Amino acid sequence: MSALDIFHGFFDSCVGNWDSERTYHYLSKSAIERSHTHFGVSPLTDEQKNKVFADNQYTVAASSLGTCPGFHLVFHTVSEKGEVVDQSVNLAFVPNGQPAEHEYLLEGDYLRDRAYEEDRPTISHFSFNSRTCELLMTTRYTQIVSVDSITLVNPKMRIRRIFNYMKAPDGQPLTELALVGFGVEQKLAD
């Protein structure tokens, strides 16, 4: 199987309803918070993909839409303090071509019609490791850089990691963590 085939299989496995238990470590204020999230994932239609591309002023050939997987994600989160967040977002992934047969990494652009940290359309970077089924998404916001990882352990379980770094000066490494999150996500029976 090619890296691109495994990438598309990853997205197919993610469609459905999921429950997530997460723990967030807010390092700047020495606080820990737990939350429970229920979310639904459905594939993006071509119309939704085109809207995400238009919102981000991003051009993709109509003939390439089939190679750009994406999700419509709806989630309901309740923190242990009782705070509730309901949100929906459309996400599209545009691979930078097909990797060579022996290569297992796929990279490209990751577009959303609204970002999590800043409520606006955004273009980010993704990489996908077809050997470990890990999708790594890096988003540069105004003040932070968010590195979000989803690893598909099997079709019914995913592991999440979220690292939010304080933005470093251009060319400098990311060294100051503001938030670290970990989660276990389990797919619900249909």
Radius of gyration: 17 Å
Strand order of the largest sheet: 1-2-3-4-5-6-7-8-9-10
Q: Classify the fold: give the CATH topology.
A: Lipocalin
Report strand %: over 45%
Helix content: 10-25%
Sequence of secondary-structure elements: HEEHEEEEEEEE
What's the main sheet like? Answer: 10 strands, antiparallel, barrel
The unreliable regions are: none
- Which structural class matches the secondary elements? mainly beta
| CATH superfamily heading | Calycin beta-barrel core domain
How far apart lie the N and C ends? Answer: 28 Å
Number of distinct helices: 2
Enzyme class: lyase
Function: Covalently attaches a chromophore to Cys residue(s) of phycobiliproteins.
Keywords: Lyase
GO biological process, one term: protein-tetrapyrrole linkage
Description:
This protein has 2 helices and 10 strands. The chain is mainly beta and 190 residues long. The protein has a 10-stranded antiparallel barrel. The mean pLDDT is 92. Belongs to the CpcS/CpeS biliprotein lyase family. It is an enzyme of class 4 (lyase).
Write the layout of secondary structure elements.
Blueprint lengths: L2 H12 L1 E11 L4 E13 L2 H10 L14 E10 L4 E12 L9 E8 L9 E8 L4 E7 L3 E11 L2 E10 L10 E11 L3
Antiparallel strand pairs: 1-2, 1-10, 2-3, 3-4, 4-5, 5-6, 6-7, 7-8, 8-9, 9-10
Key traits:
190 residues; mainly beta; 2 helices; Calycin; EC 4.-.-.-
Give a quick precis of the structure.
This is Chromophore lyase CpcS/CpeS. This protein has a single domain (3-187), classed as Calycin beta-barrel core domain (Lipocalin, Beta Barrel).
